[in-house]
Write the structure tokens for this entry.
Amino acid sequence: MKHVIAYAEHRAGETRKVTFELASEARRLAQSLGGKASVVVLGSGARQLAEQLKAYPVDTIYVSEDRDVDAYLLDPVVEYLAAAARKVGPSLILIPNTLSGRDIAGRLMVRLGAGIVADVVDVKVEGDSVVCISPKLGGALVTHCALRPADYGIATVRPNAFAAAPGGGGAQVEELEKPAAIYAAAIERDVVEGAGELALEEAPVVIAGGRGLGGPEPFETLLKPLARALGGAVGASRAAADAGWVPYNLQIGQTGKTVTPNLYIAVGISGAIQHKVGMRSSGTIVAINKDGGAPIAEFSDLLVVGDAFRIVPELTKLIETAKGQVS
Amino acid sequence: MKIVVTIKLVPEPNAEKRIDPQTKRLVRSGVETVLNPYDEYALEAGLQLKERIGSDTRVTVFSMAPEGLKETLRRALAMGADDALVLSDSALEGSDVWATAYAMARALRSLEFDLLIVGGLTDDSSTGAVPGALAEHLGLPCITNARKIEIRDGALEVERETDAGYQIVRGPLPSLLTTALTFGEPRYASLKGIMGAKKKTIATIGIAELALESPVGTGGSKTTLQSFAPPEVRGKGKTIEAADGVAGAQAIFAFLQEQKLV
């Protein structure tokens, strides 16, 4: 492993923050390994995203706007990534630890005969070995896992784990050749719900609601305005998702998403272990709950015992006012 | 039609999990072993397809597990699976994702099937890489996170969840599918099912039967677990009783200012 390749996940050219985080980290690691940093951007909107990536200190941006990438389920992505990896040579490949990132990583592992470490939050280069740091068992342990010396290694990286650091520039944009492959799983329809909303895993601030909210409406009327004021996204506990108040893609916890925002505000969430494992690594945790004895008190930096229906609108007002004064 | 569902045996999810500092492996003694909760959704999918397609459909569960734990699979048989195959060998101990997927794929290759259904994640060590790796080893299309599965004219039509919504994906048979948790709650085993499961077969194979071309276990892995430690303990923070909405909001706002978050 000498070079570093970052896979730029995106939706029709719509930027995901994690892409810039991985591009920045690729440069840092490539420097330690004495190799080059590159990014692979695929599918419709790839060229546009490649232009944005030029603001980051990578050497090469590999692109393809092959329509197959959007027409078939991940098979073309795996083909292109494998081709790019062979072109670049022995490398560490960084893939976001998202739903599709995990699918891609498992397949690429076999294609390249690579080792893999999942849900990585930090990477260290020690001599010629790459050590990945990742929480395991729902965050109960933090492991240091080395990729054994080999041509290729893969790390699926947790969004928000690295800072995006623009700078440098001068990256070459290079077109990848269309692979001679036939794909089997065709996407007939691709339905985007909640378009334009910040991806939960990438949001710097998460406002999550639970059973205490009593129904779907408070997610709209209470949490969304607060999330908007703080520039964040709305999430939910399993109880709220199971009750059908919000779609499952907003669920945070063991059976949902893992988030690590700078600020996590839990509203009406008791803090069962199921929920805790999905948000325990957040920077600052604030909870609003009627019950001062709720388990969430044990891992919150601040618990306010009171009525969320009264507190949240007042808090939203305070934040909006403060923002108004600054701008 | 033949459906194979892979099931991992994991320590009871709510039990405290520990790693043996010597072996660096999960301590399983004294902790009840259960079916990985995510895999129960995969089994539910297989059983629903069996019910819809007809009685000539068979559902086989496959697990890579220590021999001593294989009776845990009786629960999957009680839920309605027809038989079980366990890949068990002490040489598999310490296998990482690479070695695990390789050995599993080799064993699965010996089973003829039309559909392979795998759980989306595992409860004890979620890498999420195994389904994709199995598909690649077996040369199968990989359709993950299914919440609805239809088989029409010998082809699959799958509604799958994505980060942003959902997709309708069409694929051939055989394919590999993983299930989303929205697929539907796994069924409970009926009394009749529990009684019937006692007569069903749990067969075992070892790696000698797999004709492996490269090693498995610790030696066949591509990663090395160097060390592990509990995360930094998050101290219990402040608790404030809010007299009313304004007081509560002010307390939070002051705290966020102090933390430079607003």
In short: The mean pLDDT of chain A is 92.
